[in-house]
Amino acid sequence: MASRQTAGLSRAHRLAQGRVIRFHLHSSFPVQVDGEPWIQPPGCLEISHRGQMFMLRRPSEEPTGHAAAVMSDVLVNAECNGVIDAAQKRLLLHEIALRLSS
Hints:
This protein is of the alpha+beta class. The protein has 2 domains: about 1-50, no CATH class; about 50-100, no CATH class. The protein is built from 3 helices and 4 strands, in the order H-E-E-E-E-H-H. The protein has a two-stranded antiparallel ribbon with strand order 1-4. Strand 2 (about 30) and strand 3 form a beta hairpin. Helix 2 runs antiparallel to helix 3. The radius of gyration is 15 Å and the shape is globular. One of its GO terms (cellular component) is membrane. One of its GO terms (molecular function) is ATP-dependent diacylglycerol kinase activity. InterPro entries: DGK (IPR037607), NAD/diacylglycerol_kinase_sf (IPR016064). This is Diacylglycerol kinase.
């Protein structure tokens, strides 16, 4: 209960339901999707359900962790700006993850 009030989600509202939901945010606001709430900064927020998803995590202090976070951010921005589509972004993220893990 305390976490909902901290993030401003004491009275949550369902906005949409579907396989892929995309929000273009012009200002920060509280969000909760299947877990802990957070304050979402302005940008593009895509929520999708697939058989397998990449998990977002805080970048590590290692150079590869920082590089992965930067590449992920670049791909999300490219998708939000219409440079690439969601399938291309997923394929590129998968390829980056494979190469960074080897």
